Amino acid sequence: MTRTHLFVIDNPADELARTLEGLLVVASSPLSLDELAQAAAEPLERVEAAIGLVGERLREGRSGIVLEQVAGGYALRASRGAAQACARLVERPVQRGLSAAALETLSIIAYLGPVSRPEITRIRGIVSDAIVAGLVERGLIEEAGRARDGGALQYRTAPLFERVFGLTDLSELPRLDDLGGTQEELRGRIEAVADMGAG
What's the rounded Cα separation, in Å, for the pair 174 and 156? Predict the structure, then answer.
């Protein structure tokens, strides 16, 4: 009697899904479908199908890592069940390590970005170049091109900012008029110095 051996043959889509997972693990920012297709050297249609498999495998409640769409691409994040432990390891030290000046600068960029170093300096009333450089080094902000007139380099929050502070996107930031006080009073704390400098 001949014994039949069963061999598990990988589905090409499964293999591509594993490749996409690997790419997302090593990526420092979200990757678009086009970027994933280029890195995997696969047609866009196959990547679209395979990213669906990744999302199914890594869905909330099934895995400690979940796939999310953020900042125009795909990224991996910790599941809600693992978020508290991850916060103890990663998020709190990052936030704790930010000075009041860095948090103020980060707030200006989050609410008013893209914004240039001279604008940040004008708003804060103190030279902010070193703080901006430190936030870039930490990966919390990134370059966003130059002003329309070809002037100073501008900065915006980076995808890591949203991930560290638990946001899907910047629309989830507290609205200035929801933080107490009048809209003018709160916005004034960010813009008053700039308004005075422009006057």
Answer: 17
